[in-house]
Amino acid sequence: MMDVVLVGCGAMSKHWLDAARQIDGLAIVGLVDLAADRAKVRAREYELAGAIIGTNLDAVLDQTKPDAVFDVVVPAARREVALSAFAHHCHLLTEKPLADSPENARAIVEAARRAGRVHAVVQNRRYVANVRRIRRFLDSGAIGAATSIHAEFFVAPHFGGFREEMPHVLLLDMAIHTFDAARYMVGGEPASVYCQEWEPANSWYRQGSSATAIFELGGGRLFTYAGSWCADGFRTSWESTWRIVAEHGSLVWDGEDGLRAEVARPIREGLFDRTEPLAVPPLDPRDRIGGHLGIIQDFVRAIETGSEPETRGADNIKSLAMVFAAIESAETGRRVAIAQEG
Prior knowledge:
It comes from Mesorhizobium tianshanense. The chain is an alpha/beta fold and 342 residues long.
């Protein structure tokens, strides 16, 4: 049996609680929120009659003595929650992003290391089936090593609320999903970035709704990202659209079900080498998928077996470093080196 306290009972907490109740042996023993009524609503919705409700995390942890904390608070409060969890000898699973600044991210990862606790981030795009298939396909060498990775993200949601007022809204709020997926799919280590943000005339955001970035991922590989939160028409998938160019062919993914690859053959036809379609193998049974559910299962498994979860903070900090370096580049107008974190 694993007892868990969830802190932060806003809209996102529903995704966590939906997943948690599908895991045998996991019990939500406490709900914490600055607005106690919000926590009480979640308790009623999910029939958590025995859960302790509170507005102070330390007090609820003292009372419940759980094995783990689920952190669904706003990023600005993440460091405080993490340090409280580790001080109470709890493992910690946190919503993305890991932190609201590079300094806080490093402090959280170091605190987890000192405490000897499992610490992971809900970076759920890794748990998408086609992301897993692409990684395995590239690892097979069927089209050779990747040389460039290109992703486009163009959607136009009218969120209302804080997103439309926050700075660097695309980079801070969404781009880490695409950055982390790119790093995962090709096994890249980010080295540098040049990024530019702008606010189109049609934007309803205050700042940073559109951005383009060029990352070096090591080994001569480049990753280009182009995105917008205010691009009406021809909407892309929330997973972005992708083209991965490799030594002997290319792979394209529409972010949904359309996943195709072509390999070049040593037969010249006019100006071009002949290309032939190549099947991308189906999902491997060993691949972990399932969004929030898959990540929580991975987190629980890591605690039970003494292993490390895939989205552990010490690794995820590398994807977060891409975000902060892109922001620094956009603010300064220069190429920014990305420190090797973790």
